[in-house]
Predict the 3D structure of the following.
Amino acid sequence: MELLKQKIREVGVVVSDEVIKLDAILNHAVDPVLTTEMGREFARLYREQRVTKVLTIESSGIPIAFAAAQELGVPMVFARRKKTLNTDVETYCERVPSFTKGFVTDIMVGKEFLNETDRVVLIDDFIANGDAARGLIRIIRRSGAELLGLGIAVEKSFQAGGRTIRESGVRVESLVRISSLAGGRIEFE
């Protein structure tokens, strides 16, 4: 997706050979035009699959997943990372490490929001090692829902997440694939 590549070139800050900050468009501020276009592209990629729900994880995946769900005309559900006083008692829960946060967290989806009649597309902002995506995939499978595929805004293809999930038989559609951040340079596939 050329618009996303252009924005990454404009605002991306390479922190290390493994980390890029995209706070200005994905992780702290949201570019509404770009986010809407990403949602349209994911909807185009999955429209023929008869999607009934879009699933993501809080927080940075929410705007993109919302845009995709709106374009598809289906509900969006997001996995919570923290249990609160009003968290559903009946939840699907998985423990996953976070590459960028550097710690393990629980992710939860209320059982009332995901069931065996659902046809789900999983949307997220980044994939690095794929741990969060694998946790959500386990939740989808435990619910009995059908996983149609995974939509990722930015795949760091020099890390194993996207590749290993594809190898497990899951469809993965990435809007942009970054092949390297070495030497502070952003290289796209």
